[in-house]
Design goal:
Belongs to the branched chain amino acid transporter family. It is a multi-pass membrane protein. One of its GO terms (molecular function) is L-isoleucine transmembrane transporter activity. Its main location: membrane. It is a single chain. The protein is mainly α. It has a single domain, classed as Up-down Bundle (Amino acid/polyamine transporter I). Helix content is about 80%, strand content about 0%. It contains 16 helices and no strands. Helix 5 packs antiparallel against helix 14, helix 6 crosses helix 15 and helix 8 packs parallel to helix 11. The longest helix is centred in the C-terminal third of the chain and has 33 residues. The two termini are about 30 Å apart.
């Protein structure tokens, strides 16, 4: 194959969209929307700048340099570049982000039905990472398995949720609170920054490029072009999801005014709108969103470390999946407390490197 057909290109974009849409991306917008109130669209615009714009620029930057983080880090030297790349891959891979996808999907999608506890979490994470491992063992089929099968199911569930938020809001747009009263654009900008999807984009670049090459595309210019198109498709999808969720939050003050986070807002909305089936809908959305992100992260780590070290891709993904399983069973609170300082330290340097590659 010398060119991607329209459906294959759309599937590639869907896969890229699914890689980015983790649980955090679904939780933050409703919370920010509720706090923004009448300034919801200003806050949403700020959120899109950093929550969608920066990751899209990262995909473009990686496409321009060939898809790998190694070339992106050339300005800081080989040793420092390798050290930075290892830190990024480990942080968003087996140490923090990948285990977190399992724990968050359990607490939001499964625990309401099974209850919290070590045994249910263990059973769920074993099943979860078994599915992840099955999907990542053949990275050449990610577009088929994720882009053509899982993502359409996720999109269907999101369409139901987003459509309900727009056409059947819980109430009128409420009042703004806190810092959103005076600086909604800035607050939205900061919330989008805190998703830290740019770090995810750094490692997903190689997954996207590999998926394209596995379709028989060898021309580097086409790989770059298709990577950019996939990034635009993903950015468009993410923007639509975020806007719907911002509106959902802004119109839910009447039913979830005391909510402390996006999970509580979403839960209150789906239960009022859909009843018991709403909890099941939310469970499907959260679980699939987390699953596809974990697949992308483990695949990226496998590609990177099998190139860096004398070990096979298969060995890396098996070891990292097992390690992520063990870490996930330590609990979400410990994961967050350990990961936030590390991720905050890596993020500014990542943004600088991306900016340098674009100019």
């Amino acid at each position: 194959m010398t060119h991607l057909k329209g459906f294959d290109l759309l599937a590639l974009g869907f896969m890229t969209f699914a890689l980015f849409l983790g649980a955090g991306n679904i939780i933050f917008p409703p919370s920010a929307g509720m706090a923004a109130g009448e300034h919801v669209w200003s806050a949403a615009f700020g959120f899109l700048l950093t929550g969608v714009g920066l990751p899209l620029l990262t995909v473009v930057a990686l496409a321009r340099v060939g898809g790998g983080i190694g070339r992106l880090t050339q300005p800081i030297g080989r040793r420092a570049g390798v050290a930075f790349a290892i830190a990024v891959y480990l942080a968003i891979g087996p140490l923090f982000a990948t285990p977190r996808t399992a724990v968050v999907s359990f607490e939001m999608g499964v625990a309401p039905f099974t209850g919290d506890g070590g045994v249910p979490l263990l059973i769920y994470t074993v099943a979860y990472f078994s599915v992840v491992l099955f999907l990542v063992l053949n990275p050449g089929r990610l577009v088929d398995r994720v882009g053509k099968v899982i993502t359409p199911v996720l999109l269907s569930a999101l369409l139901v949720l987003g459509g309900a938020a727009i056409f059947a809001p819980a109430g009128e747009i409420g009042s703004s609170s806190g810092e959103y009263q005076s600086a909604p654009l800035v607050q939205g900008f900061l919330q989008g920054y805190l998703t830290m999807d740019t770090l995810g984009a750094l490692v997903f670049g190689i997954v996207i490029a590999t998926a394209i090459r596995d379709r028989g595309i060898s021309d580097s210019r086409l790989v770059t072009r298709y990577s950019m198109i996939a990034g635009v498709i993903a950015a468009t999808g993410l923007s639509l999801v975020y806007l719907a969720l911002f509106y959902l939050g802004a119109t839910s003050q009447g039913i979830a005014g005391d909510a402390q986070n996006g999970v509580q807002i979403l839960t209150a909305y789906v239960q009022q709108t859909f009843g018991v089936s709403g909890s099941l809908l939310l469970a499907v959305v959260i679980t699939l969103a987390c699953l596809t992100t974990a697949v992308g992260l483990i695949t990226a780590c496998g590609e990177f470390f099998s190139d860096l070290l004398p070990v096979s891709y298969k060995t890396v993904v098996i070891v990292f999946s097992l390690f992520s399983l063990l870490v996930a069973n330590q609990g979400l609170t410990q994961l967050i407390s350990l990961s936030v300082p590390v991720l905050v330290g890596l993020y500014p340097l990542a943004i600088v490197l991306i900016a340098l590659s674009l100019f």
